[in-house]
From TrEMBL, chains A, B:
Keywords: DNA-binding, Transcription, Transcription regulation
PANTHER family, per database record: HTH-TYPE TRANSCRIPTIONAL REGULATOR GALS, LACI-RELATED TRANSCRIPTIONAL REPRESSOR
Stored InterPro entries: HTH_LacI (IPR000843), LacI/GalR-like_sensor (IPR046335), Lambda_DNA-bd_dom_sf (IPR010982), Peripla_BP_I (IPR028082)
CDD domains hit by this protein: HTH_LacI (cd01392), PBP1_LacI_sugar_binding-like (cd06267)
Name of the protein in question: LacI family DNA-binding transcriptional regulator
SUPFAM superfamilies: lambda repressor-like DNA-binding domains, Periplasmic binding protein-like I
Pfam families noted in UniProt: LacI (PF00356), Peripla_BP_3 (PF13377)
Source domain of life: Bacteria
Residue intervals of the HTH lacI-type domain: 6-60
GO molecular function, one term: DNA-binding transcription factor activity
Keyword check for Transcription: yes
Keyword Manganese: no
Length: 342, 342
DNA sequence: ATGAAAGCGCTAACAG
DNA sequence: CTGTTAGCGCTTTCAT
């Protein structure tokens, strides 16, 4: 038994009205007699009619779909963000489609250049490999909101956390504990690695303020921001003989990896080495010791990203794309847990 | 400066050919003179033409979009699955849109009943709250693939792991270590909680085989499968005076929560209490001690789900929806780590 | 308050 | 190998 394709026309016929009237009912217009409305609604239910979105989209020139482009969905920070973005979008009647860039410059560029043109109305992008120049040179004019530090002056909104200030705060916390040899894990050579650069700056600034010497042997570069990178970085640091008494890791995954290496080798945390991360992912709250970390307001990040994007999408319809780029700073907190206070 | 809406017609005019020819080029048809092709391609680049997907979809009756419905994106198991599904779908030219059901029956039903009708061509659903009856009563006939144990005989494919056998294997592993008081964390009252029911069955079967008494005080129910639930369940177990010498947790998050509680209270793992989880999420590989777990082949789950779905979508076009429901069993392994072998 | 008809951009017959 | 044309299902003037 094959379900029949049912359209507005069929509903109209059954209800004995015109297509326009059915459309009005479906779209909740006001000027419809209650009687007519009831009749139409009955017909809709009877036929199990569902509007064809493709047709509606074609007609209206929009789809109600936005894309969220993140490096990878199973990086907890982005998974948490994605959950919040999807939830907020839903509240606003928007559907979210996910693009995974793998932090590859090519994929990020593809996404930014709108390879989903005509399918999405807007884009939330977490650029990792794209340089400010790349972004400034963007041709596509689909509304876009960028997540992460501001790196670009084009007509795109940014939702940012003050990475320098947050990294400084994390490092000062370690210094205040009396730690003198504070290492940093998470430096990246890559020119595009904005947040790495900024967190490093905050770390160095804090050392200066605390009157501690900046020892480059305590700054460990990583390839990626995964647990494995943190574990390897920590191992390299220990192997080099540069045992620190504290480590600021540029994200929680690095910190969890580093923690693993430390415990594996019999170092006590925070006894011998104190540890701070960045992101406040749930893992850190259940690690042993629990992880001190910088906690950005993810709810705000996701909510604002969707709101800004929706606003820009609306504006675009009315007045082209001539809207000032806005930058919104989101609050963060230092959450002190056992890895610095056990 | 407003970008002009450019369509096939414009490209055709510029290239001096008909729309059909442009369409042929765009869709990579064979019968096009190289010369013509080049000319058309030049025009496309010149105008920065992008096909309007809504129009194409409307015409073809499909969208190339599939939905992945999971309880929540930041549950690591589902995040890992989502990453793999999105990646595999992309390989097949499909776009994935995410629905978060929050394991709510209402939301799951909405998704299964096709509230995205005409927007998606197919659906991959991980049902948590839906009962077999709910699913059997499904009206919508969008192709669907179910993830998890088979609970339903309708025309939907299933990608499953043998929960009973896997749980049995995990429990037998603990018994083989000489543990006698093996607890289980993760029972659920909910009638819809298939995998909980099955894992519990496997656990009990293993106890019987190992000649161990089944003590219901060692079976701890939970509300959800999050870290917090595991932590609380373990606390309740310890508080009840029923200290076990091993615990089989029905997923890794429960195990990580339980681990936290054990360490917090000074119990050694695996010394006093050995621990096994289920899912093999990355967290478990970096916990201290690292977590022994059942590792389902997630790559296979995601890949097969997409493949089965794509196959069913193709078949539907050809021959309606008359295809046997298929059930595919995916392999799993017991991965022994420190939490049972330290 | 409702109806009639045009057309969004594309693909697929059907011609040639 | 390429051109012409008819809709896909919907919203939206413009009438009534």
């Amino acid at each position: 038994m094959e379900r029949v394709r049912v359209g507005l026309k069929d509903v109209a016929r059954l209800a004995g009205v015109s297509v326009k009237t059915v459309s009005n009912v479906v779209n909740g217009y006001v000027h419809v007699t209650p009687a007519t409305r009831t009749r139409v609604e009955a017909a809709i239910k009877e036929l199990d009619y569902r509007p064809n979105l493709s047709a509606r989209n074609l007609r209206q020139g929009r789809t109600g779909i936005i894309a969220l482009a993140v490096p990878e969905l199973d990086i907890p920070y982005f998974a948490e963000l994605a959950r919040l973005v999807v939830a907020r979008a839903e509240e606003r009647g928007l559907t979210v489609l996910i693009d995974q860039t793998g932090a590859s410059k090519e994929r990020e560029q593809l996404v930014a250049e709108g390879f989903r043109a005509h399918l999405i109305d807007g884009l939330i992008l977490s650029p990792l490999a794209l340089t400010p120049e790349d972004l400034a040179a963007r041709m596509d004019n689909t509304p876009m909101v960028l997540l992460g530090e501001r790196v670009y002056e084009g007509p795109a909104d940014h939702v940012v956390v003050d990475n320098v200030a947050a990294a400084r705060k994390a490092t000062l916390h370690l210094a205040a504990l009396g730690r003198r040899r504070i290492a940093a894990i998470g430096a990246q050579d890559d020119a595009a690695a904005e947040s790495s650069r900024l967190r490093l700056a905050g770390y160095r600034q804090a050392l200066r303020e605390a009157g501690l010497p900046a020892d480059d042997r305590l700054v460990v570069p990583v390839r990626d921001y995964h647990r494995a990178d943190g574990a390897h970085a920590m191992a390299r640091l220990l192997d080099s003989g540069q045992t620190p008494d504290a480590v600021f890791c540029f994200n929680d995954l690095l910190a969890l990896g580093a923690l693993r290496t430390l415990l594996e080798r019999g170092h006590s945390v925070p006894g011998e080495v104190a540890l701070v991360g960045f992101d406040d992912i749930e893992d850190g709250r259940y690690a042993t010791p629990t992880l001190t970390t910088i906690s950005p307001d993810k709810q705000a990040i996701a909510g604002l990203a969707v709101d800004l994007l929706a606003d820009r999408m609306a504006k675009r319809v009315v007045q082209g794309s001539r809207v000032e780029a806005r930058e919104i700073r989101v609050p963060y907190r230092l959450v002190i847990r056992e890895s610095t206070s056990g």
